[in-house]
Write a structure and sequence with these properties.
The protein is of the alpha+beta class. It has 17 helices and 34 strands. Among the domains are: 65-209, Rossmann fold, CATH 3.40.50; 479-594, Dna Ligase, domain 1, CATH 3.30.1490; 602-694, no CATH class.
Length: 696
């Protein structure tokens, strides 16, 4: 019997999803920013210890954003100590002549160089002098550091020099946490590989202490096992997470996308746009058939060349602060009120947020937030908005001016999310008019219909438990591990036997890593990808490579990958080269996974398809375009059974979220207990549309 607890620590709330005895239970607690583990452990104690906890942590992300990781040094090849500062020469703000970049994680004095060098093909140009190793050891002993990154030139093609240094320092300086590039990110591009290795080293001591403390505390509560959510949409055991904390920099958003993809497929929708609007930010992703994976990501401007889900984040969440900038324009985010003090209506904040705006417009109901556990304060929200109203030329006691300011905040936040969706769809050649918007997070269902209308997205799917979907995704996620090897050869000079041999070298360590994470060997499967590019290009496209049952390939598999690359290139960039144009294989990737058993997706669903009477009638402004408040019914989500249909405008409330159904929209509870919204005048019912979408 499954007994699992998924836990997602967000900027405002910590979410819990418990699967026990075939049933699902959800609850939320305010996060504890000063000690993220406190809210987690309090929740575990309150609900009763499960046998397995799967945790999405923000410790790594916050440490990078706030620059409060471990004191870290870097060892690199002579002449390459400034790679971290040189970077790619990109200008994040093209016209800002006073733009200042964040300083590197490793100060210049702690970036040490060592002689010895390898060529791009891995051959040795210059051995490491024995005296250089002794000098390096003396330099490190004089530094006040607790972590060390080692990244030598071209160590992705031959890590022999790196291994020599790592072996020496492990024995000579056992107190240092050492991250070597060949074991972290064995991929080309010096800056990205160096950055990834440094990020990992910078996080290792912090995550090591956090996970050690958490494992001990959970064990004392009776929890048998702990897993950590990774950025790639899979989970890992504590040992892996402590050694590779850079894999966990985007663990929360990854959990949400895993659950959105899983639930949408069960509902018959394969082309989706995920909209995860939480307290601090909104995460957007495009998903067609499979989870969208990327070979790299970035956190706080720092490249991380490790597999991750392809998610775009903008600073627009329920707690995002509204202000007037120096030019007199209304801005929302990226600064957030967080959990402490939180939005003004929560009782401690004093500055206006998106949540306060939704409350002032009647879109949020004071007594329905968190199932009534936290009553929202409209008067405090109005007081927080008073300076903003005045700055916009209104009187503080003018109800119309207050609504106008609140609507302005909603529209600015919506515009930021609309841009994010456009960036992930239209700018990549995907058509949002042929997709389903999956809205979740505590605030996602509040804004989803307006975004769908603006982008002509025909449907919105609101899962049964939208406010805790990231935590649910952690329960659903596979256990995973990835490896890569640099090849850098024309594909015409590569035969299937060599690729099969490379896969055979990568697979055993991955299998052992998953077994160490508690997975049965029989549950492990593998998938391969080739990073391909046209000769002369600088960047690659990940292209699936079909494997046989013995993890081998034949020449037809290579040709299949080549044909797939041409199609992917045309889809992404709008053009392709001739079939005989030389293709270059840069990296071979292998992914090991162990699928988790399926879990129930709804807690105690009602069985009646008849729409119950509304809980009450309230006055609210549902359309961000404006207007006076109108009377709208409020329905309790827990009373809606499969088949129940609602005509907008209406509001649906539940413990973890509120859904807005604007006028001109219909909503129906489907067989999976999702709430599916569509335009009443233009779109077919979800039941009629789902099979067509499923065939794509």
């Amino acid at each position: 019997m499954i007994d699992m607890l998924g836990i997602d620590i967000g900027g405002t709330f910590t979410d819990f999803v418990l699967v026990r005895d075939g049933r699902i239970t959800i609850f939320k607690r305010l996060s504890s920013p000063d000690d993220p583990a406190r809210a987690l452990l309090d929740g575990v104690a309150a609900i009763g210890a499960p046998s397995l906890v799967v945790h999405g942590t923000t410790v790594a992300t916050n440490a990078l954003l706030e620059r409060r990781g471990a004191a870290t040094a870097l060892i690199t090849t002579t002449g390459f100590a400034d790679v971290l500062e040189i970077g790619r020469g990109e200008r994040r703000a093209l016209y800002d002549l006073a733009l200042r970049h964040m300083p590197p994680l490793v100060p210049r004095a702690w970036r040490l160089e060592i002689a010895g060098r390898r060529a791009a093909d891995g051959s040795e140009l210059e051995p490491i002098p024995p005296t250089a190793l002794a000098t390096l050891l003396e330099q490190l002993q004089a530094l006040p550091i607790e972590s060390l990154a080692i990244c030598l030139l071209h160590s992705d093609t031959d890590p022999a020099h790196e291994r020599t240094i790592t072996h020496l320092l492990h024995h000579a300086l056992p107190h240092l946490a050492i991250s070597a590039a060949h074991a972290i990110a064995a991929e080309p591009r010096e800056y990205e590989r160096t950055s990834t290795t440094v990020v990992n080293a910078y996080l290792v001591p912090l995550l090591d202490r956090y996970i050690a403390r958490l494992s001990t505390a959970l064990g004392a509560c009776g929890v048998d096992a702990l897993r950590i959510m990774g950025s790639d949409g899979g989970t890992m055991g504590p040992a892996t997470a402590r050694a590779l904390p850079a894999r966990a920099t985007l663990s929360g958003p990854a959990g949400g996308l895993v659950a959105a993809h899983h639930l949408a497929r069960r509902a018959g929708f394969r082309r989706i746009i995920s909209l995860d609007m939480g307290g601090t930010s909104t995460d957007v992703a495009w998903c067609a058939d499979d989870l969208p994976r990327s070979a790299a990501s970035a956190v706080g401007g720092l490249p991380v060349s490790l597999p991750s889900l392809d998610i775009h984040t903008v600073g627009a969440g329920g707690g995002s602060l509204a202000r007037i900038d120096a030019g007199g324009s209304l801005r929302v985010g990226p600064e957030s009120a967080g959990a402490d003090p939180g939005p003004a209506c929560h009782g401690r904040g004093t500055r206006p947020t998106v949540t306060d705006a939704n409350l002032l417009l009647g879109r949020l109901q004071p007594d329905d937030f968190l199932g009534g556990a936290l009553r929202l304060d409209p008067a405090r929200a109005a007081a927080a908005f008073a300076p903003l109203v005045a700055a916009l030329g209104g009187a503080p006691d003018d109800a119309h001016a207050l609504r106008r300011a609140a609507l302005g905040v909603i529209r600015v936040a919506d515009a930021a999310m609309e841009r994010a969706i456009r960036q992930m769809t239209i700018e990549r050649g995907e058509d949002p008019r042929d997709a389903t918007l999956v809205a979740f997070g505590g605030a996602g269902p509040l804004h989803a219909a307006a975004l769908a209308a603006a982008l002509h997205i025909p449907r919105v799917l609101v899962p049964r438990h939208p406010g805790v979907l990231s935590a649910l995704g952690m329960v659903l996620a596979d256990v995973t591990r990835d490896a890569a090897v640099t090849i850098l050869r024309l594909i015409t000079r590569l035969d299937a036997a060599e690729v099969t041999w490379q896969i055979a070298q990568l697979a055993p360590p991955l299998r052992l890593a998953l077994i160490a994470d508690g997975v049965a060997e029989s549950a492990i499967s593998f998938a391969a990808e080739l990073d391909l590019r046209y000769q002369g290009q600088s960047y690659e496209l990940a292209t699936p490579l079909p494997l046989d049952a013995q993890l081998g390939i034949d020449e037809s598999a290579l040709q299949h990958a080549v044909a797939r690359f041409h199609r992917l290139h045309e889809q992404r960039y709008g053009h392709r080269r001739d079939d005989d144009h030389p293709l270059e294989l840069v990296t071979l990737r292998l992914r090991a996974r162990a699928a988790q058993p399926d879990v129930p997706i709804a807690a105690h669903p009602p069985h009646s398809a008849q729409l119950p009477p509304p809980a009450r009638i309230v006055h609210a402004v549902l359309d961000p375009a404006g207007g006076e408040p109108v009377a709208v019914p409020v329905y309790q989500r827990d009373t809606l059974g499969a088949g129940a249909q609602i005509t907008g405008g209406a509001i649906v409330v539940q413990l973890d979220a509120t859904t807005i159904i604007p006028a001109g929209w219909l909503a129906q509870v489907d067989a999976e207990h999702n709430l599916v919204l569509w335009r009443a005048t233009t779109a077919p019912t979800p039941a009629r549309h789902a099979p067509a979408d499923a065939e794509r």
